[in-house]
Design a protein that fits this description.
The protein is mostly beta strands. It has a single domain, classed as Trefoil (Acidic Fibroblast Growth Factor, subunit A) (Trefoil), CATH 2.80.10. It has no helices and 12 strands. It has strands at residues 7-13, 18-27, 30-36, 45-50, 56-60, 66-74, 77-83, 93-98, 101-106, 111-120, 123-129, 138-143. A hairpin with a 2-residue loop joins strand 6 and strand 7. The protein is globular and about 35 Å long. The two termini are 20 Å apart.
């Protein structure tokens, strides 16, 4: 599957059966990206667009905020968050690992996104770490139909 710039996607995490969403939970002024099992919510949709470096930005279409890897930590890993501005730390590389399956790499930090076991108000916190080979780094992209 080829990722189409300018299209909306849902990011499914096969290991947990959850999807990423832009939560209302705030950490140091930015919103946390979390995962839950509720497929039908508008805040699950992310617009993927290529930036000037050929990386993809993930813009939540419900909140108009961009995903980035923060310096905030939970259990030693970087928390993935969203904010209103677009900057270099919003770029991600989708590394194919199977049909419609990708690892999401953040080139600025050298970290991979994963759905953690850390819970915030009933939802799983999305974090980033350097362990490239873990199955919990794998996401499936589903083209969103609005």
């Amino acid at each position: 599957m080829s990722i189409q710039s300018g299209e909306n996607y849902i990011l499914l995490h096969p290991d947990t059966g959850t999807v990423l969403f832009d939560s209302n939970d705030v950490l140091n002024g930015d919103h946390m990206i979390e995962a839950h099992p509720h497929l039908g919510e508008q805040r699950n949709f992310f617009l993927l667009e290529k930036d000037a470096h050929g990386h993809f930005t993930l813009k939540n279409t419900a909140t108009n905020r961009y995903v980035f890897v923060s310096n905030d930590k939970k259990a030693g890993d970087n928390v993935v968050e969203s904010h209103n501005g677009i900057e270099s730390r919003n770029g991600f590389v989708f590394e194919p690992v199977g049909p419609e399956q990708f690892k999401i790499f953040h080139p600025q930090t050298g970290l991979y996104l994963f759905v953690s076991n850390d819970i915030e108000k009933g939802d799983r916190v999305v974090e980033a770490h350097s362990a490239a080979g873990e199955s919990r780094n794998i996401f499936k992209l589903l083209q969103a139909v609005k």
